[in-house]
Specification:
This protein has 250 residues and is α+β, with helices and mostly antiparallel strands. The protein has one domain. 28% of the residues lie in helices and 31% in strands. The strands form 2 sheets. Strands 1, 2, 3, 4, 5, 8, 10 and 11 form an 8-stranded mixed β-sheet that branches.
């Protein structure tokens, strides 16, 4: 009884957290692109997708059988291009009876990512205007390939997630799309993505990165602390100095 009450209390506390209240706690998507963007235009991109969604959305022909052996080299070759570099061996997982693949890759210029075949459904732009930097992504039509019955229930979603390097000034991800300050999430139903319903992502951010601002703040704090220590040491040394007493006549 006590264990049950404790578990119930824990569940209540978790659901009181912001992540749970917006449905983000333990949320999983059938297909997800996740971009870690730098202000110089370079980025690290993660793709997490079921094999079935990869076939349906990007037109590949991998075996979707539950016991099928997924060719990791073929996955690596799919995401390797003159624009992109796969930085680690793709990993695999299983959920709801379906195989999932997880790929990490680097791109030198996000503006060119749409030239890589797996990302050709999107166009990406990073522009600078004074103190503002704007990131946009237009997601167009998918391959819309029929993959048969793979166990989808109609509730599956896709997600486009951007980790931005500086403070977000504006975004069109909606009130639920801003996560932990500078992470934005745009979601769409898998059915809508299969139909090719367009999705436009936009975010405007400050031109100074959070890291550089933190380093500047740290440096300024260090200078202030050093100055305070110097002042204290000067005051102590001055107070401790005693004027010499002149010697009297012998």
């Amino acid at each position: 009884m006590r264990i049950g009450a404790a578990l119930a209390l824990l569940a209540a506390l978790l659901c009181a957290a912001p992540a749970c209240s917006r449905g983000d706690f333990f949320r999983q998507h059938e297909y997800e692109e996740e971009i870690f963007l730098s202000l110089d235009g370079s980025a690290t991109v993660y793709v997490n997708s079921s094999i079935a969604a990869l076939n349906a959305l990007r037109g590949t022909s991998f075996d979707t059988g539950e016991s099928a052996q997924v060719d990791r080299d073929a996955i690596r070759q799919l995401f390797t291009s003159p624009i992109t570099t796969v930085t680690r061996t793709p990993s695999l997982s299983r959920r709801a009876g379906r195989r999932f693949v997880h790929v990490r890759l680097d791109v030198a210029q996000i503006d060119r990512l749409g030239q890589a075949p797996p990302f050709s459904w999107s166009s990406y732009r990073l522009t600078r205007d004074g103190a503002l930097v704007t990131f946009t992504q237009h997601v167009g039509a998918s391959a819309g390939k029929d993959v048969g019955d793979v166990g989808w229930t109609g509730t599956e979603t896709v997600s486009f997630r951007a980790h931005l390097p500086s403070t977000v000034i504006y975004h069109n991800a909606g009130p639920e799309g801003l996560r932990r300050g500078n992470i934005l999430v745009w979601e769409q139903s898998l059915a809508g993505r299969l139909k090719g319903e367009p999705l436009d992502l936009e975010a405007r951010m400050e031109s100074q990165s959070i890291l550089s601002r933190t380093l500047l703040l740290f440096g300024a704090t260090a200078i202030v602390v050093a100055a305070m220590f110097a002042a204290i040491i000067w005051w102590v040394s001055k107070k401790g100095a005693r004027p010499s007493t002149p010697l009297g006549p012998p």
